[in-house]
Task: inverse folding
């Protein structure tokens, strides 16, 4: 970043030097041209007032052939060329070349302008010599024209002559910019580096106002990353603990059998316990794998058209035996409602909600599953009259391995991952979860899915 700042500052400085030099050159060259023209005007008028010119001017009135070139050559004109032209364009005198060898000048633009307006100007360039010739012509009272001219370098020549100076100045400024750019970049970057080192400190303020949204975003991502790491660590610890319990039980019962300590009457009970703990272990592994898939974005076919009521009815039929075994009345009612998603995941969501209703219930209780339409949503509700959840615990029930009643959950085969799976599946399907619960009264969990219109799904009676 420092190197980029240095290079860009130096490049900007170099461009500035070139453009400013070019602009100044144009301005001063225009002033230079104006000054040359003014000097030529002044020279022409001063020559007219000299005694030598006046004498020759008077002689011209009697006879043009009486002009004395040798006398006019005595005029001090310096670098200015003097040309005297008759009214018909004939050159009467030229101090740079003999008049007889010069062509008629009546077609020259400055002569024509002088004949018409009393004075004229023109500039002619020589690409070969890289010079411009400035002409000024003044019409005299007798109709003749006095023309003066001088040469000066063209703008290209002036530019190339000044190029070494421009190069030296540009290199000097380039060097200064490198030094200043390095100091400036360090001054800019140091506070940012310090902010990066203290990004995890809530009291750390961004060094620049423009960085506040960026710093807030980075800090949020950093906090989320730390939270994700902590969650993963907690999850690993919880999985290890949950796996340890059934494995310990299986190992203990196997040891009894291995050492011949199990009498024939208790062997059946031991076998039942081994099977129950194996089932719980398998369910825990399956739930963990499913959560891992959902965490990694493996959402399955999320574009299937599903009849939510049909899926709920099928889940209730599958869980009816489990409900009857726990002396729970399980019912399902409602009407067809079309949603889009992964059918297997939707069924898993329904089964987890129903199993929770059965697991955290009392003998003789009920679990009622219903599907309804509400404000463009298909709403799945699972209501029970079980133990309920205290208000202060309701915000945590969707956390992994969180149990409202740990002993009841383990005894009934719960893994503590059911509602965490429900939350994940709902998020994948853009569904919202609502929960109402009162201890000793029961719980209602409602999932609001975006509904789609469909003519292919028929009501299930």
Result:
């Amino acid at each position: 970043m420092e190197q980029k700042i240095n290079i860009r500052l130096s490049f900007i400085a170099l461009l500035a030097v070139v453009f400013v030099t070019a602009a100044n050159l144009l301005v001063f060259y225009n002033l230079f041209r104006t000054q040359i023209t003014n000097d030529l005007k002044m020279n022409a008028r001063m020559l007219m007032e000299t005694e030598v010119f006046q004498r020759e001017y008077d002689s011209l009135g009697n006879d043009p052939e009486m002009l004395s070139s040798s006398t006019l050559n005595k005029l001090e004109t310096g670098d200015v060329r003097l040309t005297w032209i008759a009214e018909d364009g004939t050159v009467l005198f030229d101090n740079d070349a003999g008049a007889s060898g010069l062509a008629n000048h009546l077609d020259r633009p400055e002569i024509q302008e002088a004949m018409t307006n009393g004075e004229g100007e023109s500039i002619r360039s020589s690409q070969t010599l890289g010079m411009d010739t400035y002409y000024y012509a003044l019409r005299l009272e007798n109709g003749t024209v006095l023309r003066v001219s001088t040469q000066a370098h063209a703008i290209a020549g002036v530019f190339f002559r000044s190029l070494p100076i421009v190069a030296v100045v540009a290199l000097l400024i380039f060097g200064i910019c490198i030094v200043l750019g390095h100091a400036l970049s360090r001054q800019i970057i140091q506070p940012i580096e310090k902010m990066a080192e203290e990004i995890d400190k809530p009291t750390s303020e961004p060094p620049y106002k423009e960085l506040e949204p960026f710093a807030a975003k980075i800090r949020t991502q950093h906090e989320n990353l730390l939270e994700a790491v902590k969650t993963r660590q907690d999850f690993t610890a919880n999985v290890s603990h949950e796996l340890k319990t059934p494995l310990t039980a299986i190992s203990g019962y196997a040891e009894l059998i291995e050492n011949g300590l199990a009498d024939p009457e208790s062997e059946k009970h031991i076998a039942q316990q081994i099977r129950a703990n194996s089932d719980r272990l398998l369910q825990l592994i399956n739930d963990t794998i499913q959560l891992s898939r959902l965490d990694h974005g493996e959402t399955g076919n999320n574009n299937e058209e599903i009849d939510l009521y049909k899926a709920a009815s099928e889940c209730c039929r599958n869980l009816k035996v489990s409900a009857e075994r726990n002396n729970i009345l399980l019912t399902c009612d409602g009407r067809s409602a079309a949603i889009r998603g992964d059918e297997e995941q939707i069924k898993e969501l329904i089964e987890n909600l129903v199993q929770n209703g059965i697991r955290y219930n009392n003998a003789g209780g009920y679990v009622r599953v219903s599907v309804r339409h509400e404000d463009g949503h298909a709403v799945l509700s699972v209501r029970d009259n079980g133990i309920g959840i205290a208000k202060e615990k309701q915000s945590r029930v969707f956390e992994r391995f969180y149990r409202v009643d740990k002993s009841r959950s383990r005894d009934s085969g719960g893994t503590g991952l059911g509602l965490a799976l429900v939350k994940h599946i709902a998020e994948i399907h853009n569904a919202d979860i609502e929960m109402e619960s009162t201890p000793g009264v029961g719980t209602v969990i409602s999932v609001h899915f975006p509904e789609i219109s469909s003519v292919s799904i028929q009501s299930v009676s």
Observations:
- The first helix runs from residue 2 to 48.
- The chain is about 55% helix and 20% strand.
- Confidence is low (pLDDT under 50) at residues 455-461.
